[in-house]
Specification:
Blueprint: H1 6-26, H2 37-46, E1 52-53, H3 54-61, H4 65-77, E2 81-85, E3 93-97, H5 99-120, H6 125-147, H7 159-163
Helix pairs in contact: 2-3, 3-4
Length: 167
Amino acid sequence: MTARDPQEQFGQSFKAAMAAVRRLRGRETHRPGDLSYAQYSLLFSLAAGEALSAGELALAADVSPASATQMLEAMERAGLVKRVRSGQDKRVVLSSLTGRGREVVESRRVLFEPRWRAALAEFTDRDLVTAAAILDRVREMFDELAERPEATPPGSGTVEEKLTPAA
């Protein structure tokens, strides 16, 4: 095994993680009535308790507003979400979790949170904060590329500067 440049190693690991997420997102539900990855993303976005519009939920779940609306309509029929017109703008429909929707979110959290914690258990808090800063920088780069492909590299300063509290 040859030594790799750390940035190259991170890039390959990042691509592999993104591929795993795409596989998870692309997997069809195996049983009738199962929710998709995108549907769970919508439900988890609502778990904080605030009613959100289809556009806000679409952004959070990385789906189109039309797809979010279709999924929300199906989840409303299943009793997982409640949808009401906004009192401030009647064109906007706000969605929130029902009691049953909260139960579904909690059962999913109980299933996956131990896996998440186990996967990260060997890392220190500082490791995780550093990883979060790196991922934030990568996200900024991709957002910048999406908005302005010709732009210069994002951000200034080092990860260490981001991690050091301001005096």
